[in-house]
Amino acid sequence: MLQEVVYCGVCTFPPEYCEFTGKLKRCKVWLKENHSDLYEKLYGDEEVGDKEVSGVAKNLADSSIGEEREEKLEKDLKRLQTKQENREQRELAKKLSSKVVIKREARTKRKFIVAISGLEVFEVDMKKLAKTFASKFATGCSVSKNAEKKDEVVIQGDVLEEVQKHIKGMLEEKGLKDVKMEIIDSAKKKKQPEGAEGAPATNGKK
Amino acid sequence: MFRKFTKEDIHSRSKVKSSVQRNLKSKLVSQFPQLEEVIDELIQKKSQIELIKCEDKIQLYTVDGEVYFFQQFDELIPTLKLIHKYPQAFPTIQVDRGAIKFVLSGANIMCPGLTSPGARLPETPGYEKDSIIIINAENKEHALAVGKLLMSTDDIASINKGHGVEMIHHLGDPLWNFNID
Ligand SMILES: [Zn+2]
């Protein structure tokens, strides 16, 4: 007989491992609402005290590694979690405040290149991305250093809009929705700060 | 193995022919004989296995949209999603509670985490070096990782030093979070 395993709706792990994900508080709420029997089994004993992380208390009692080490482990784990959360927040803020620049340039009268810069903050593997674009648009695509000595992905071809769409989708997949994108279309002589809210507000204040 | 895996690593997707599907099923059973009882329930006749070819010659196999096993070389390796459905079919070792967070961070498992009182290894003659094993944890019901033995379980117990298990796949890694659609 095959087993049907419940996975946590918050952290996706089997609930017995929620205590290691740094999301325990939300995990417990979810479990209580959705699988109260399992909740009872994992955290039943602690109901009375209703302390935050004492679900571990039960495990503690049966643990082989001794109370002292457990406690230290618990502290380490918490410290690690806060650290991780803080770091994640900082990184997210950094990501949301940076922008991707997509630039179209004329090579000859009818040939264009599109260059994308500003991706390094988003942990994008640019070589892989270049490969993806090369096969997606059946064209040449490479990673090279731009004037500011930063990596940029350069695509041969007039694919500005497609690239914009792809990058947007890729960032959204990473959970980054409102990343600014600056579109520079030098082939048209005109700057189009599309999507970017860089324009100063005209409310008179300075 | 999947530390840096992303969708960009996918090269191609294709439906597997029914003859190949049969071969894959019998290969799984030959590697893990106890799967025989449930293999037709696990991968039903009407299910469609899809092959996803990825960077570094990694091939993922999905059954009805969920990755069930994968291979890089000849050997098929089950994912945790598959293992959780029928854990008794796979060779298993257990780490102590202290090792859990390291395992979940993707680290290889050191021998002492497999020999302490909370850990468990099979009796001699245990599993050979290079066996694919699943990893449980002290006081836990479900597996949290899949690995490959860097030394035999007997050597792990007697030498008790250094890396005992190479980490392949664990709860929370990109393969665990992988969603094809
Ligand atoms: Zn959870």
Write the layout of secondary structure elements.
The complex is a heterodimer of chains A (206) and B (181).
Chain A: H1 24-34, H2 36-43, H3 55-62, H4 67-97, E1 99-106, E2 112-117, H5 126-136, E3 141-145, E4 151-156, H6 160-173, E5 180-185, E6 190-192
Parallel strand pairs in A: 1-5
Antiparallel strand pairs in A: 1-2, 2-4, 3-4, 5-6
Helix pairs in contact in A: 1-2
Chain B: E1 10-15, H1 18-31, H2 39-42, E2 49-54, E3 59-63, E4 66-71, E5 77-78, H3 80-85, E6 92-95, H4 100-104, E7 109-110, H5 112-115, E8 132-137, E9 145-149, H6 153-159, E10 163-170
Parallel strand pairs in B: 6-8
Antiparallel strand pairs in B: 1-2, 2-3, 3-4, 4-5, 7-10, 8-9, 9-10
The complex binds zinc ion.
Structural write-up:
The complex is a heterodimer of chains A (206) and B (181). Chain A has a 6-stranded mixed beta sheet with strand order 3-4-2-1-5-6. The model of chain A is unreliable at 48-55 and 194-206 (pLDDT under 50). By secondary structure, chain A is of the alpha+beta class. In chain A, β1 (99-106) and β2 form a beta hairpin. Chain A has 2 domains: 15-95, no CATH class; 98-195, 2-Layer Sandwich (Translation Initiation Factor Eif1), CATH 3.30.780.10. Chain A has 6 helices and 6 strands; from the N terminus they run ααααββαββαββ. In chain A, 40% of the residues lie in helices and 17% in strands. With 181 residues, chain B is α+β, with helices and mostly antiparallel strands. Chain B contains 6 helices and 10 strands, in the order βααββββαβαβαββαβ. Chain B has helices spanning 18-31, 39-42, 80-85, 100-104, 112-115, 153-159; strands at 10-15, 49-54, 59-63, 66-71, 77-78, 92-95, 109-110, 132-137, 145-149, 163-170. Chain B is globular, with a radius of gyration of 16 Å. Classes of the chains: A alpha+beta (206), B alpha+beta (181). The structure holds zinc ion. Residues 8, 10-11, 13, 15, 18, 21, 23, 27 of chain A line the site of zinc ion (ZN).
